[in-house]
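Give me the 3D structure for Amino acid ABC transporter permease.
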Amino acid sequence: MTAHHTSNSANKPEQGKNQNLLYNPTFRSILFQVLAVLALVFFFYTIVNNALTNLESRGIATGFGFLTETAGFGIGQSLIEYDSTHSYGRTFFVGLLNTALVSVLGIAFATILGFLMGVARLSKNWLLSRFAAVYIETFRNIPLLLQIFFWYFAVLQTLPSPRQSISVGEWLFLNVRGLYMASPVFEQGSMWIGIALLVAIIFCLGFAKWARNKQDLTGQQTPVFTISLAVIIGLPFLAYLASGMPVSIDYPELKGFNFRGGVTIIPELAALTLALSIYTASFIAEIVRSGINAVSHGQTEASMALGLSRGRTLSLVVIPQALRVIIPPLTSQYLNLTKNSSLAMAIGYPDLVSVFAGTTLNQTGQAIEIIAMTMAVYLTLSLLTSMLMNIYNAKVALVER
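Predicted structure for Amino acid ABC transporter permease (401 residues):
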């Protein structure tokens, strides 16, 4: 009787411990998260398994073996070597590079234009500020797809034919089929120019850091931009002369009904880049304006009292502080621009959606694999953009002492 009573007494603390564990907020949160992940995995497994079963019952093969098959169709623009004899896997990389190209160009142009318009919106010049306001309110309230159609059909498709091209000497020709520009041809020995350019960039980065430390210690400013520009231009030019000028020019020439040689910018790329840049810049301008307004006006008054011009006040005092407010929403606009580039198929630009999720999907019927790969690309591009912007945001963030 005594032993039985002792056994029950020993089990009570253990039962109480289990009950306390169930009421522990940390344990319960982890448990619920694990259950949620398992439910999500089971959900997607069920969907994929059912889809594969249906495809097999219809005699449709699954897997990624189609990537090695011959594509059999041409692509209007390719940053890597490509023709109709290449595989579907090659079309994937062609579309990926074309998507990355228009995204990078759009982000660069939209950032520059957005910052200019954001600063202009706050200008004391009435005409300049009104122009910026009209630009912002116009382009951010017109659907992006309509803007793409405008630049492609109403502007670029009205240009003259190749024989009546708008030209600038032998260097540039603009017509309905695109923009043709002279391009450099790097011959043997030109690698020294690249090495000189790399050395110049490294020097400029180190020089900028030295000038910043000098200003922090002494307050003296150094013309970093002017000196860096001179080094970046001058050092490669000296290497060009010293290596025997191993760079020639390939001029575009009209042969038959079209131009050959040089660099070609197809109208689809130009229209898409213009529309994405102008549309996104209207949102970036408002982000910049709000970021500048978030900086205390006393900062501007103090810098002006020290004798700094308005331009120097803006670049040295206001913008560095405003960046802490600007960067997070700016990241969202970069992500939106990258995803909006998928509208390219509306005008026939050979991006990933048009080439791979469009033509390749229609020819192979591998819907699950192709759509999954396309989604993975956009997810990867977005995560990479977010990572880079978060790193930059951490560098400009306030550091408390």
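The first strand starts at residue 166 and ends at 168. Let me know if you want a second pass.
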